[in-house]
Input
Amino acid sequence: MTAPAQSHDVIVVGSGCAGLATAIAARAFGLDCLVLEKADRLGGGTAISSGLLWVGGNHLHAAAGGTDSPEAVRAYLRYVGADGIDPARMETFAAEAPRALRFFEAAGIPFRLSPRLDHYGMAPGASSGGRLVETPPIDAEELGEHKDNVLLPAGPLYRLGGREAAALGGPNRPATWEAALEAARARPGVRGSGAALVSWLVRLAARNGVTIRTGTAAERLTMKDGRVTGVVTADGETIASRRGVVLASGGYESNPDLVHRFEALPGWQSMFPESLTGDALVMATEIGAAVHVIGNNLSLFLGFRNPEEAPGGTAVCRLSGTQELPAPHTIVVNGAGRRFADESFFQAVAPRLREFDVRSREQPNLPCWLIFDAAYARAHSFGGRSPGAVIPHWAARANSIAELAGVLGIDREGLAATVQRFNDDAQHGTDGEHGRGSSPWGLTRFDPSTTLGPIEEAPFYGIQLHPTALSSAGLLADTTARVMHVRGRPIPRLYAVGNAAARTETGSGYQTGFSLASGLTFGLIAARDLAANAGRSS
Output
């Protein structure tokens, strides 16, 4: 006799911020919940992120004496999201995110304000602080049986919270590294940033009775009478859901086939774990779900892999825009040896990467290269190594700019002219070509004269940078996180939250904290809808 299928009120696929938040909320509403995680460790992309959430008009800011308004929050969202926004989803996010923050704080997550600021200081409704929140560091011992089950980033810096790292000057300061190493010695299990956010959520989920399974990939959805009824795992196990399935397995950034299908960025490298292969997109489209593509997706960055971080495997793409690019003695150039944007503000770089030359039939700014000199190498962090560490052999080096251009395959005259102009500007403290250093945003808080440090001290170094991004495509979801069918109706009992859903609430632009805050918010909304409307057909 065949054993009966396992059954739960709610099945959540994915264990990042969105998935765990959904599960915690579902339990708070009295629902039995199972979280399935494909990888052997919990957290997905959240675990290796900054762990920041953008929540306009939040109560922590108000308690600290800050002022914000619903009008300013919505104005900023409209500016950043541009024409990629679904007004109804945006309104829901703006209104519900502060309530979600209160909900999860009351449930046991200790949020605090971050010193980080809105990226677009020139935007209507922009704030110089108070909208970004984070969790403090936590010790793994707090997680009980799950203490070794959370994915951790490479390097020591994840042991610090964002507030602590910012106070010490960011990833390019030796003091930051020293503090991280000291934290590791004093409390070997301490973790901050995204690993802390996941750990706090795992701790709360486990204590509230959420069942969590790792190493279990959901392969397809089951249906009956037009409704989603559960999942079938890659091992052939059928698990039934009495109320619904919530897809929270992230995007497809580590799936080369889907990247090729939806992105137009040659040389792509994934900044996410290998487990993020678009499972939600595949499973839902098999039953008729609509896919939505965010046009002009500016959640786009440059970076490279440090092979030392994954011996024998594939390292994630490190984001240079928050480490090397804002620092002095660095530039980014294309194959013609020309700079094409303000390197210190990664959002200025993003749209230039998608440019297409109709005559040459190519994207002129891809591939591109990071160029730096011995002055940078002596004082700053490269590739996730401590500041001043020896530059590894896998980065090209030469004793002259002309020689470096030859090694990298860059136009020699173009690069020489670019470096000369940049060095002249650096002497005067103003970037006359791209305005580098004029943006109010900056993780490392460099002023213009500092970020414009010249590139003049041999040896000179270079490495190819690769585009990496949040997926442009996702499942189309409504204001209650229900997945929409291609015929324009909700698919009964199927939800998508986090990066599994198209980011229509925040649109085309990028702001640190949008993604995780959206996951937290729509996770709560989905759980509330599951609890309140279990019997409805759509």
